[in-house]
UniProtKB/TrEMBL annotation:
The chain crosses the membrane at residues 211-232. One of its GO terms (cellular component) is cytoplasm. This is Lipocalin/cytosolic fatty-acid binding domain-containing protein. Pfam families: Lipocalin_2 (PF08212). PANTHER family: APOLIPOPROTEIN D, LIPOCALIN_CYTOSOLIC FATTY-ACID BINDING DOMAIN-CONTAINING PROTEIN. It comes from Anopheles dirus. Residues 1-23 form the signal peptide.
Length: 233
């Protein structure tokens, strides 16, 4: 019985019921992550689906179906194409952006400054820390941006290579979140990624298409090789 109560308490702290936690999350001190790993930009590129979110951006608090495509830009930067949907009758809304690497002497994790073409010119770039990733299934991203002399706006996302995380990865991600995000106001929302809610996005199609083009190119190369071989028989 005791374990059930503890478990329910833990779930209540970690998750919020539907609209219970849609608001900007404020803090007076950003979290520090000490994970020491050698980030590989080229392995982080490609498509990511947002499956969980902590906090909301003030500008657009009702985003679901967030899907993004990262490509390598110059000097360790990324160019980003992102789409999201508001409500189940919405259609994908697109934005493009850029993430520039940010160098900190003390930093042990990759840090970027991100900006979209929809960002208000008066707003600062958003800080993005990639606190954990295995590149092939999940990434946990943390953002903490100063809003005035005393407060920061906190946001965090769990990204997945597929619209849903595999069960074994869910367990790993839960362990990480439970251990690090321990403040009572840090409640995660599972964001919508189901096919019946989310309309197809060009961000996904673009990635599948380029993979298709790559497959087509190699098929034509093989056919060309066969043709050449026949000509010289
Ligand atoms: C931002 O970029 C997206 C994708 O390239 C484009 O569809 C959209 O019109 C742009 N929005 C603005 C405000 O420039
Ligand atoms: C900073 O913003 C927070 C949240 O809006 C507010 O409570 C706080 O008083 C502000 N601090 C200053 C110094 O303006």
């Amino acid at each position: 019985m005791k374990t059930i109560t503890v478990w329910m308490f833990a779930m209540a702290c970690l998750w919020c019921a539907f609209d219970g936690c849609r608001g900007t999350l404020l803090t007076t001190a950003c979290m520090k992550f000490e994970e020491d790993y050698n980030f590989k930009e080229d392995k982080y590129v490609g498509t990511w689906y947002e499956v969980r979110r902590l906090g909301e951006s003030e500008a657009s608090p009702h985003e679901d179906c967030v899907v993004m495509n990262y490509r390598l830009g110059d000097q360790g930067s990324f160019t980003i194409l992102q789409s999201y949907q508001v409500g189940d009758d919405g259609t994908p809304i697109y934005r493009s952006g850029r993430a520039e690497p940010k160098v900190y002497q003390e930093a042990r994790i990759p840090k970027f400054l991100e900006r979209f073409n929809t960002t208000n010119p008066a707003d600062p770039d958003i800080s993005i820390d990639i606190v954990a990733t295995d590149y092939i299934s999940y990434a946990i991203v943390y953002s903490c941006t100063s809003i005035n002399s005393t407060h920061y706006a906190e946001l965090s996302w769990v990204l997945s290579r597929q619209p849903a995380l595999a069960k074994n990865v869910v367990e790993l991600v839960n362990l990480f979140l439970e251990a690090r995000f321990t403040r009572e106001d840090q409640k995660w929302r599972a964001t919508q990624q189901t096919a019946d809610f989310c309309k197809p996005s060009l961000v996904e199609v673009a990635d599948k298409h380029s993979a298709g083009v790559r497959a087509f190119a190699s098929v034509s190369f093989v056919l060309f090789g066969i043709l050449l071989a026949q000509m010289f028989q």
